[in-house]
Amino acid sequence: MLKRTCFCLIIASIAVFSLGSNCEHGLKPRFTAVEGNVIVKGDWPEEAVNCFLCIVEEKPEELVLDMQLLSGYYPFPNKMVTEGWDSAYFYIELPAGNYGWVFVAILDSASLDLENPDIGWRNLAAEYRDPLDPDTLGKVIVGEDELPFIEIEIDFTVPYQGVGNSPDERFHLIG
User: Fold this and answer.
1) Which of 78, 150, 156, 172 could form a disulfide bond with 42, CB atoms 3.0-4.6 angstroms apart?
2) What pLDDT digit, counting tens, does each position of 93-110 carry?
3) Does the predicted TM-score (pTM) go above 0.85?
């Protein structure tokens, strides 16, 4: 009787495991998302229209923004800008992988001109920084046993010009 019970338990375990996993694709990572908060200090710039969280595998060395490299983005509600929220939660699903550049972009009416978009470093409001070494960009690993939680701070208390190189430089858009 004991052998029969053990055998039934083993068969039931195999059946549950087989039904619970996707046989065509194997086992999937437990978490394929990142969540966190954007915290805002100071007043939003009057020219701000939209705000996005953007996630890219690597930060480009040159002023080239290849839209195909954008792994994911999260559009914050327009109310965040118009009502001047001081924080917002985000949750964004992504393929499993390592992401080396997470940033918040603020768009104004010049950025939204479809014929000649003016997008540059000035649109970069904040970057995710390594909590242990704020001088370096933070890395986000998606697809591990824990759901990554990050916080990004936008500081409008100093004259806002973005966090990139020269505020006059523009991205050359590709894709």
Assistant:
1) 156
2) 999 999 999 999 888 776
3) no
